[in-house]
Design a protein that fits this description.
This protein is mostly helical. The chain is 82% helix and 0% strand. Helix 7 runs antiparallel to helix 9.
Length: 211
Amino acid sequence: MELLRFFVNNHTEVLELTIEHLSMVGISTLLAATIGIPLGVLLTRRPALNKPILGSANVMQTIPSLALFGLLMPMPWIGERADRLAILALTLYALLPVIRNTHAGITGVDPAVVEAGRGMGMTDRQLLFQVQLPLALSVIIAGVRVATVISVGVATIAAAIGAGGLGEYIFRGLAMVNNQLILAGAVPAAALALLADFMLGTLERAIRSRQ
């Protein structure tokens, strides 16, 4: 009840921090998809690149978020603004599931379907865009879904470098030993993660049912 009263009394700030949080997550997930999907496609065409690309993405996942923020701070232009730094870090964290699922989705397409396409005279490019990517779309969406949920969680840590978002309440609450403030940041962040997971999961199931 007290938490609800807090949201009502501070609705403007809560909305502002939520928009900041959504902005960081949205931009970073879009960038991760823009970079990760082509990389996943590349891995299906150049298997020799699997280890360096997936290995690098795996390494990014193992670096603690605060440590990654610290490593990126000296970078020119990026390190000058906390929001840029946070978006880059979130993008790096979100790459692995997008790359891996894109690769798995395309390689998981029935070889008989691919061979049928080749038998019809389709080029590799036509096979990719007209056969493989459409059939792998639900798996790719599943990767974007995981990346989005990861980004929502990690974005709360971005408040530690002044990037804003719902993590502001969490760190403020920790500094003041105030559980209400901690919950004011944690509850909306959890709700956003659940909502994103539900929406993308619904899209994933809808695509799969049409295939």
